[in-house]
Amino acid sequence: MALFPPFVELQGRPCVVLGGGAVAERKVESLLAAGAVVTVVSPALSPALATLASDQAQPAARLEMELTVNHERKRVGVAVKPLPFFDPPRKRA
User: Domain segments of the chain: what residues?
Assistant: First the structure.
């Protein structure tokens, strides 16, 4: 199977990265370099991703989230909650 890279204008576009490890780090850095607005969804972040996190991502910060309920888009207020650090042995290399 042959693969090719997509060429997409990302300036100001919202992008989601799932995971917080080394691969996510590379993806986030390249998306930010392209001008994307990046959201990372992960129970834990690598040290490099944690340093990229903005002040809005600090525990107890009030944020707004957009979600779909019954085929209808809604914006809701959310609070950032600190999670216990998740570091299973299989994730350590």
Answer: 14-82
